[in-house]
Specification:
By secondary structure, the protein is α+β, with helices and mostly antiparallel strands. The chain contains 8 helices and 24 strands. It folds into 3 domains: about 5-50 and about 155-160 and about 165-290 and about 395-420, no CATH class; about 55-150; about 320-370, Alpha-Beta Plaits (2-Layer Sandwich). Helix content is about 15%, strand content about 35%. The strands form 4 sheets. Strands 1, 2, 3, 4, 5, 6, 7, 8, 9, 12, 13, 14, 15 and 16 form a 14-stranded mixed β-sheet that branches. The two termini are about 20 Å apart. This is Putative methanogenesis marker 16 metalloprotein. InterPro entries: 4Fe4S_Fe-S-bd, 4Fe4S_Fe_S_CS, Fe-S_Ferredoxin, HcyBio, Methan_mark_16. Pfam families: HcyBio.
Length: about 425
């Protein structure tokens, strides 16, 4: 079975194509139904997760022309930016590159991911510019004031990722946990959206390549190549999209015990052009390996599957504020990596818009205000069977499934156009 993207695009234009989300296909497979190339033409996929390999290129005015010659340092809400590469001499304009892993010098657990989200939300960001004459200029800027604001991926949309445990006898500070990682394998964290992950559904990169149109944080963008440390066995992508068209709910900052990280979201349409693409789409979470790493040594110690994380588990957190015990120190408020939990007028509140569905609150709340079945890792290590409860998810499967459904709707309506790549990443 071989079909071209042009053939599938023609079927779409004639309203004859069948578009399904990766989740819908997996549900059919789990029911024991056969799915052939006659049943589906396009599979929509998505992932939302912490993606450190992110940076923004921003260009905006900070003052009138000739007020300063060049900027030497720039802070956005206290988050350092790299000035340039254009000097914009005496124009009152700053070009800046902001790394997604940059941390604020003013506010603990605040970083570039938070700045990116607040800009897209339309909020005003404080700008501090140190000129090469060592003068400081304070200003404010909104995304609407930025003629150029692009978000770039250097290492996104991994072909799933891994689970982590701490096999040492001491707590570990790491980007793979919201708080110190407890020792002696008392809990596990994970990343990867399993069966709906984009590259998981096209592992040979037959349809995803340079020039492939995608949705990055809800905005149309393009794949521009392979990501850093990418390989045919473990591929990931680079890409770019315009921040002006992004959805703030799909991005943001995420607190970890090693500092704030950056959240990003991708949705990609996979045209079913060959049997190998279809075979990949037919794999369910139970078929997809999830490597288990020791976070202390960063070595593989076992292997599970994504069924441990996503089969018969809760995508979202159940919230029962009446169960609150009014603890002197509310651990969910203290530890929430998204600061989505607050107390107001002696009542606990959950901001669903801000929530990442990581589930950590359900593991630290003694009263059962927050509850969720997060799953348990089952794996063999040194000849012994291990069962380690999952305590934190660094991928948001709920919103990823919603993104895949939205992309499906956009394709069927003609709002999103399927396109052919310019060049294969791995020939």
């Amino acid at each position: 079975m071989e079909r071209s993207v042009a053939e599938i695009r023609e079927k779409l234009e004639n309203k004859e194509a069948v578009v399904m989300t990766a989740q819908e296909i997996s549900e059919l497979v789990d029911k024991g139904e056969d799915v052939s190339s006659m049943d589906v033409d396009v599979v929509t996929t998505a992932t939302r997760a912490i993606m450190s390999g992110t940076y923004a290129v921003l260009s905006f005015p900070v003052n009138s022309p000739v007020c300063f010659k060049r900027a030497s340092k720039v802070l956005l809400n206290g988050v350092p930016a790299h000035v340039g590469p254009c000097p914009n001499e005496s124009l009152g304009i700053v070009d800046a590159i902001v790394f997604g892993t940059a941390h604020s010098v003013l506010k603990h657990n605040y970083g570039a991911g938070h700045v990116f989200r607040e800009l897209v939300e339309g909020k005003e960001v404080n700008v501090s510019v140190v000129t090469n004459e060592e003068e400081t200029i304070e200003s404010q800027v909104k995304l609407v004031d930025m003629p150029f604001a692009k978000l770039y991926a250097t290492r996104h949309a991994f072909k799933n990722y891994a689970a982590f445990v701490n096999g040492s006898d001491k707590p570990v500070n790491t980007i793979f946990h919201a708080t110190q990682f407890s020792p002696d394998m008392h809990g596990a964290t994970l990343s990867g959206c399993g069966e709906i992950n984009p590259v998981q559904n096209d592992p040979k990169m037959e349809t995803i390549g340079i020039g492939t149109r995608v949705l990055m944080n809800g905005a149309e963008g393009f794949v521009i190549g392979e990501g850093t440390r990418s390989s045919p066995a473990k591929p990931n992508l680079t890409g770019v999209a315009d921040m002006h068209k992004m959805d703030a709910a799909l991005m943001g900052g995420f607190k970890t015990s090693a500092g704030p990280e950056c959240i990003a979201s991708w949705a990609i349409a996979i045209p079913v052009t060959s049997q190998s693409v279809l075979d990949a789409a037919l794999q369910t979470d139970s078929d997809i390996p999830m490597v288990v790493n020791d976070v202390d040594k960063r070595v593989m110690i076992g292997s599970s599957t994504y069924a441990d994380a996503w089969k018969n588990t809760d995508r979202a957190i159940s919230f029962n504020p009446d169960a609150c015990l009014d603890c002197e120190v509310c651990k969910p408020i203290r530890d929430c990596p998204m600061e989505a939990i607050q107390r107001k007028d002696n009542r606990i509140l959950l901001n669903r818009y801000q929530c990442f569905n990581c589930g950590f609150c359900s593991t630290v709340c003694p009263g059962g205000v927050f509850t969720a079945e997060l799953g348990t890792l089952h794996f063999e290590m040194e000849g012994k069977h291990q069962d380690v409860p999952i305590v934190l998810r660094q991928s948001d499967r709920k919103r990823a499934e919603e993104m895949a459904e939205k992309l499906k709707e956009k394709i069927l309506s003609g709002e999103f156009k399927l396109n052919e790549m310019v060049e294969r990443i791995y020939p």
